[in-house]
Design brief:
The protein is α/β, with parallel strands linked by helices and about 375 residues long. The chain has helices spanning about 15-25, 45-60, 80-90, 105-115, 125-130, 155-160, 190-205, 220-235, 250-255, 265-275, 285-295, 300-315, 335-340, and strands spanning about 1-5, 10, 30-35, 40-45, 70-75, 95, 115-120, 140, 155, 170-180, 185-190, 210-215, 240, 260, 325-330, 350. The protein has a domain at about 1-205: Rossmann fold (3-Layer(aba) Sandwich), CATH 3.40.50.12780. Strands 9-8-7-5-6-10-11 form a 7-stranded mixed beta sheet. The chain has a 4-stranded mixed beta sheet with strand order 4-3-13-12. Strands 14-15-16 form a 3-stranded parallel beta sheet.
Length: about 375
């Protein structure tokens, strides 16, 4: 049981309720950071809670209620996360779409969904929405640069006003893809599932409020929701966003996160970057690197290898302080796993139990499941 700002005590049953709890427990503590124009901007838990309440109020005024769905078309940034939490605050869900996916396929999906409510990162995402011929009741955006708003479009900053009564819906996030037969498939993740997996991770990795995590990948994947967003709210640590995907590696080095929730592609990309910068095989410098990374006991290797090779390489990768390196989804290739192990970075695998199913004549709806035609479970 936890005590909320309204004086009541209950077990938080959704992501927004955990946000309320953290705002009550550590309102002045840093919740989010986002790098803009080279400077880290911070929001504390009380500010995040107030911003989500304001967004919820604005959405509620415009008719968002019950099991409505907010489509989020954005790279990782605070506004996208807070918009999703605002939708969940009102009992709805957020469908997370990755703007890096091909435009044609995504526009086809948008035409099928015909969303009434959309959060688009900026001009590029708005143009993708317009190109799909979709006319949502409300499309709001965080980056106003170059945007000439059309009917139904509004700047995020101007949308903040009012407050909405918190509700607890069952579905938190929805994800879409095309099946082998070309039909749209949908996966839903409930609040209960997110909180169950989030608690398991927090306990297993002993995560606390002093952790620092970087949200460098798109949120349009269930693993990020399970193993990054839910633990952030449960443990109450700091979640940071890079200035852009192009700067994420530099921002990681500057930040030095203690928690990294990456995929096979994340670790593989970092491994390839290091391999490209290593001295040529056979050189004296390369022999030193290979000697330091070899998995053999010995005090000399441990001490000299750490100061001469392992520590500098960890600094280059942004893993200088990382104590919880997590792998979500597919396992790493053996050479990549061995490389990080040689650095003293023991990457621990956490499964991504996403199940995508073929359409059936009589689908069996279930919380945390999906319906192939995109409809809500009963």
């Amino acid at each position: 049981m936890v005590r909320f700002a309204d004086g009541g005590e209950r077990v938080p049953a959704s992501l927004p309720e955990w946000l309320q709890w953290q705002a009550h427990r550590q309102g002045e503590g840093i919740a989010l950071r986002h790098k803009r124009l080279g400077i880290w901007q911070a929001r504390n838990w009380a500010q995040v809670d107030a911003e989500v309440r304001g967004l919820a109020g604005a959405l509620q005024v415009r008719g968002f209620a019950g099991d409505a769905q907010l489509v989020v078309l954005s790279r990782p940034r605070p506004e996208a996360l807070l918009a999703a939490l605002a939708a969940q605050w009102l009992g709805g869900s957020a469908a997370l779409l990755d703007p890096l996916e091909p435009a044609a396929g995504q526009q086809e999906l948008l035409r099928e969904l015909q969303p009434d409510f959309v959060f688009a990162e900026g001009l590029e995402e708005l143009e993708r929405l317009r190109g799909a011929g979709v006319a949502p009741r409300l499309a709001f955006y965080a980056d106003a640069r170059g945007v000439k708003a059309q009917a139904g479009e509004q700047d995020y900053a101007r949308l903040l006003a009012g407050s909405g009564a918190a509700q607890t819906g069952r579905c938190a996030f929805a994800f879409y893809r095309r099946g082998a037969d070309g039909r749209r498939e949908r996966q839903q993740i409930s609040h209960a599932e997110l909180l169950r997996e989030g608690r398991r991770l927090v306990q297993a990795e002993q995560l606390g409020a002093d952790e620092e995590a970087l949200a460098a990948r798109a949120f349009a994947a269930g693993g990020q929701a399970r193993y990054l967003l839910a633990p952030w709210l449960i443990a109450g640590f700091r979640l940071s966003f890079p200035e852009s995907l192009a700067t994420r590696d530099n921002d990681r080095r500057e930040l030095g996160p203690t928690l990294v929730a990456g995929t096979r592609e994340t670790y593989g990309r970092l491994y390839a970057q290091v391999q490209a910068r290593l001295p040529p095989p056979g050189s004296a410098q390369r022999r030193l690197v290979d000697w330091a990374l070899a998995r053999r006991p010995g005090l000399l290797r441990q001490v000299l290898g750490h100061w001469l090779v392992r520590r500098p390489l960890r600094d280059v990768l942004g893993f200088s302080r990382t104590r919880a390196p997590l792998l979500v989804g597919e396992p790493l290739p053996q050479d990549v796993q061995a490389f990080f192990a040689g650095l003293g970075v023991t990457v621990r695998a956490w499964p991504d139990p996403a199940e995508w199913h073929r359409p059936s004549a009589h689908p069996a709806p279930a919380v945390g499941g999906w319906l192939a035609d995109g409809s809500q479970p009963a």
